[in-house]
Design a protein that fits this description.
The protein is mainly α. It is built from eight helices and three strands. The chain has a three-stranded antiparallel sheet. The structure holds manganese (II) ion (MN). Manganese (II) ion binds next to helix 1.
Length: 203
């Protein structure tokens, strides 16, 4: 495998008008590709070159000598999940009935509370990072997690179900500094709850 053989699951204009073609072009084609290229350079000739991303992430987390490999592998993996976490703009975008919807109700009371808590996490995460809806691997309980920089829940014994990229490069061309508007739009109109639900069922 090659770390830069990733493809977007849709065309670059697929998220308009919420996220522009220009943003997706730069986000996928420059930022994500940059992480992949750096990861290839950093792992060339090492055992990591033939490992899958999850294994690299788990192997290098919290190892100061391998921070650069961790950062680039995790950023690459996080972006792959991010593109699967969104779909084309939908005016109405409810969570589908089923086990995941039941878990949302059990943990957050209702769907609106989940969305409000995701927004709060996105708005209040300081600096660059990611907001996650994740399920505890043991209890299956849903949790909202904020991580900084490249960190992600797979090193916390959690299964990520859906993620929101809150690095400025994810929204600056469209929303400038208005991260709350970006996050609100993503949560209300783009969030792929079917993807989250299928990850929950598989967790
Ligand atoms: Mn990004």
């Amino acid at each position: 495998m090659s770390f830069n053989d990733q493809n977007l699951p849709f065309a670059e204009n697929h998220l308009e008008p919420a996220i522009s073609e220009k943003t997706v072009e730069f986000h996928f084609g420059k930022h994500q590709k940059g992480y992949a290229d750096k990861l290839i350079a950093l792992t060339n000739g090492t055992p990591f070159a033939n490992m899958d991303l999850v294994s690299i992430i788990k192997e290098t987390v919290d190892n100061p000598a391998q921070t650069a490999i961790f950062n680039n592998a995790a950023q690459l993996w996080n972006h792959i999940l991010y593109w699967d976490s969104v779909h084309a703009y939908r005016e109405e975008n409810p969570i589908p009935a089923g086990a995941f919807a039941d878990a949302v109700k059990a943990t957050f009371g209702n769907e609106d509370n989940l969305k409000a808590e995701l927004l709060d996490a996105a708005v209040n995460l300081f600096g660059s990072g990611w907001v996650w809806l994740a399920a505890d691997n043991k209890t299956k309980e849903l949790k909202i997690i904020k991580t900084q920089n490249a960190a992600n829940p797979i090193t916390m014994d959690m299964e990520p179900l859906l993620t929101i990229d809150v690095w400025e490069h994810a929204y600056y061309l469209d929303y400038q500094n208005r991260r709350p508007d970006y996050a609100q739009t993503l949560i209300d109109k783009l969030a792929n709850w079917h993807f989250a639900a299928s990850n929950f069922t598989a967790a």
